[in-house]
Specification:
Elements: H1 7-23, H2 30-36, H3 43-47, H4 51-73, H5 81-95, H6 99-114, H7 127-137, H8 143-161, H9 169-184, H10 195-199
Helix pairs in contact: 1-2, 1-4, 4-5, 4-6, 5-9, 6-8, 7-8, 8-9
Length: 200
């Protein structure tokens, strides 16, 4: 049986999720996770490498199913940036009232902020994949610029949804409109002015 599908690995994920929810991420040790799962003290390191990597695996397992299918099937030649942003934000609106869902959002916000190059394995946790989709939708937008736009967008989205109180409908609408405007702004070549030419 592979490490990625072993019962011990799944038990570690479930135990970590429960402990993070009740005690908070910082207060939970690797030893406590292993003990709670009835596993060898080195199990977290064997299956994940570290507590942080366990957390990223947990987030991928819990959050990817919320929107991966819709993102995989989106037609970038016909869909709008607004539709793409709605696919991203709608699941967050649904889970923000659930304690476990809110925990996932807080953990995700924490890792995106502290580890912008975290070792994600799922394609939709990689900014390059998001950048490719945006480039296909927005004219004259380069990959690097698209990647920077998404980094800013996700930082804003996660900071808002990971707050202590759930967002109101009006707040979600304003956030969505702001993100759509930022991501979808057409890219136009910058006009470089030569001061010497102007003065001549």
């Amino acid at each position: 049986m592979s490490v990625s599908t072993s019962p011990t690995r799944e038990q570690l994920l479930r135990t970590a999720e429960r402990l993070f929810l009740t005690d908070g991420y910082d207060a939970v040790s690797v030893r406590a996770i292993c003990a709670g799962a009835g596993a060898n003290p080195a199990a977290v390191h064997y299956h994940f490498g570290s507590k942080d990597q366990l957390a990223t695996a947990l987030l991928e397992a819990r959050l990817t199913p919320l929107w991966a299918d819709q993102l995989m099937s989106i037609d970038t030649s016909r869909a709008s940036v607004a539709a793409l942003v709605d696919i991203v934000i709608s699941p967050f609106v649904e889970i923000q009232h659930d304690p476990a869902g809110h925990l996932h959002l807080q953990l995700l916000a924490r890792f995106v902020h502290a580890n912008p190059e975290a070792p994600w394995h799922g394609a939709w946790f990689d900014l390059d994949r998001w950048a490719d989709v945006l480039v296909a939708m927005v004219g004259a937008l380069g990959h690097d610029q698209a990647r920077r736009r998404w980094a800013l967008a996700f930082e804003l989205i996660l900071s808002r949804f990971s707050a202590e109180r759930p967002l109101s409908d009006d707040a979600v609408t304003s956030l969505t409109e702001f993100v759509v405007a930022g991501l979808g702004q057409p890219c136009t070549p910058a006009t470089v002015t030569n001061p010497a030419a102007v003065s001549s």
